[in-house]
Amino acid sequence: MTVTKTVSLGYIGCGVMGRVYMKAAEALPIVRSAAVVDLDMEAARQAAETFGIGCVHASADDLLADPAIDAVVLALPASARTGLAIRAFRAGKHVLTEKPVAMNADEVRRMIAARGDLIAGCCSARLRCQDSAETVERIVASGRLGDIRVIRSCWQTALKPLQPGQTPPTWRLSTAINGGGNLANLGSYALDYLLGVTGWRMVPEQVFARTWGVPAPFLDQVAPGSDAESLTTAMVTFQGGTTLLLEQGELRVGPHETAWQITGTLGTLSFCILPKTQAIVLHEYVDGAVREEIVWEGTGTFAEMQGRLLEDFAEAVAYRRPPKTTLEQALVVRELLDAIYASASLGHSVETHPIG
After folding, report:
1. Cα–Cα distance between 12 and 36 in angstroms, integer?
2. DSSP code for 326
3. pTM greater than 0.85
4. Per CATH, which fold does 7-126+307-326 belong to?
5. Local confidence band at 356 (pLDDT 50, 70, 90 cut-offs)
6. CA angle 273-274-275, nearest 5°?
7. N or C: the chain end with fewer CB closer than 10 Å?
């Protein structure tokens, strides 16, 4: 797309992810990084200096009142974001918010109600901003898999003991700060990806799940007060009969494992949703035999993916089109997270309710 417009961004949050956005913006002609703010003023000043951003605001409200800002990036934990997003909408600013989109589904509904005709996106779309994801989506849409029966998602991160002086982030496994643990943090990516590449057509019906907290021997590997789950298993059934089998966790005593498959009546597609070197393999029933075909080979990088995410949002603002993941789509993800947590808490399956 030929760039004819520029979107002025303000960044609320200058931590690790805030700086990732600022770095990505440097390579995007459509983006102008205009201002930053952080509770830690020194962090804000350092970020502004590093990335050549001219304005450091004293407060988020000051940034939101800045007429030079078209849109804001909310790069801070979920507990702080919903109120900021609503204030941003009231100030006439478009919003790109981190994941999980909010602490719960009700907060997402509040954001949708406040958005009006502004653009709002969620960065749970990040992993779909890859060529490999476009291939998965194309194969699913082509019908070559037939009717989708089972989707498998396994993302288990191996235990990596902290190094001397290393401090784990307080939000990562905190229900109060980030609306959940590993499932909310990384599972948001997996759910967004799988719902997205299937065209957001799958409507959840029922969820049965179990979650586990941090094992006692590893409490010294996480921040004090980490009360959220480090491991989740879930089965989600959808209208039409498709079933999702989800295994999502960290601190695993064993090898790092990542595996994703979509199996239909006519074929199975095996792929990885993470940015890496991979081959996407299609097993397909053709002329009375099962045929294996590599439908895509290549390498994805986090930097490329991040750039595409920010570019997609900026183009959505500039050209008034939906972003990669809208708030309505992010609501489906958050409703699923809530249902998984509810099932695990209650000890039995729970029914979900499609968006009206």
Report:
1. 6
2. B
3. yes
4. Rossmann fold (3.40.50)
5. very low
6. 125
7. C
Tokens linked to 40: 């830690």
User: Which parts of the chain are beta strand (E)?
Assistant: 7-12, 31-37, 55-56, 71-74, 94-97, 120-122, 148-158, 204-212, 231-238, 243-252, 257-264, 267-271, 277-286, 289-299, 350-351
Please report, for the chain, the start and end positions of each structural domain, with discontinuous segments joined by +: 7-126+307-326, 127-299+333-351
Gap between the Cα atoms of 198 and 141, Å rounded:
7
Asked whether the beta carbons of 204 and 236 are under 8 A apart, the reply is yes
What pLDDT shows up at residue 2?
A: 54
Strand partners, 74: 12, 97
Pair 314, 28: CB distance under 8 Å? yes
Q: Average model confidence (pLDDT) for the chain?
A: 96
CB contact at 8 A, 101 and 121? no
Q: From 190, 116, 126, select the one nearest 153 (Cα to Cα).
A: 190
Cβ proximity of 167 and 299 under 8 Å: no
Q: Which CATH number fits domain 127-299+333-351: 3.40.50.620, 2.30.30.240, 3.90.230.10, 3.30.360.10?
A: 3.30.360.10
Say if residues 330 and 127 touch (Cβ distance below 8 Å). Answer: no
> Could you report the per-residue pLDDT of 51-104, keeping only the tens digit for each?
999 999 999 999 999 999 999 999 999 999 999 999 999 999 999 999 999 999
